[in-house]
Each structure stands twice: as structure tokens, then as C-alpha cells.
Amino acid sequence: MGLKEAYQDKLEAQLKEWTATLDQVKAKADAAEASARIEYYKQIDGARAQIAAAQAKLNELKASTEDAWASLKGGVEETWANLKTAVDGAVSKFK
């Protein structure tokens, strides 16, 4: 396995983890009072949009050549940082 594939595997695992976390947060939001649910759902929807963007970046990375993937890495990492912020924001509503 090359460096590119290892990097992709790491990103895919993180996406799965964050998706599962958001599913748990949504389950908690579903049980919240109606007035609170609106805010929780906004946070969750924002994070899910970030997951979609991250998946698109990952697909772009997968389609890249061995030589070109390093140039995409910066954009991928920025997308991942934004996603982490969104997921952390959604999770923090339930602490």
C-alpha cells in the first residue's frame, strides 16, 4: 500500500467515524424539546453538508494520479478541518 492509499484509508475511516457521531447526535436531537431541536438540526445539517464536501474532496483525491495527489492534499486537509469544526460544534450542543 502506498502513501496515497494509506492517506485515503485514514480519511475514509474518519468520515465513517464522524458520520456515526452525527447519527448519535441526531438521535439525541430527536429526543430534545421542539424549540431546541431546530438549533440542533441546523448544526447537524451544516455538519452533513461538510461531510458531503469532504466526500467530494476524497473522491477527487482518489481519482488523482500518484504524482498529482500531493497537490490536492492541502485542500483536502482544509476541508477536513472545516468538517471537524462542524462535527465538534454539533456534538458540543449536547454536552
3D structure, described in words:
By secondary structure, the protein is mainly α. It has one domain (3-92). Helices cover 86% and strands 0% of the residues. The chain contains three helices and no strands. The protein has helices at 3-30, 34-63, 69-92. Helix 1 runs antiparallel to helix 2 (34-63) and helix 1 runs parallel beside helix 3 (69-92). The longest helix has 30 residues, at 34-63. The radius of gyration is 15 Å and the shape is elongated. The model has no long low-confidence stretch (mean pLDDT 88).
SSE diagram, text form:
Blueprint: H1 3-30, H2 34-63, H3 69-92
Structure described in brief:
With 95 residues, the chain is mostly helical.
Supply the key terms:
3 helices, about 100 residues, mainly alpha, elongated
User: How is the main sheet built?
Assistant: none
Q: Percent range for helical residues?
A: over 70%
From the spread of the alpha carbons, the general shape counts as elongated
Average pLDDT = 88
Give the count of structural domains: 1
Structural class by helix and strand composition: mainly alpha
Distance between the termini: 39 Å
Number of strands: 0
Low-confidence stretches: none
Strand content: under 5%
Helix-strand pattern: HHH
Number of helices: 3
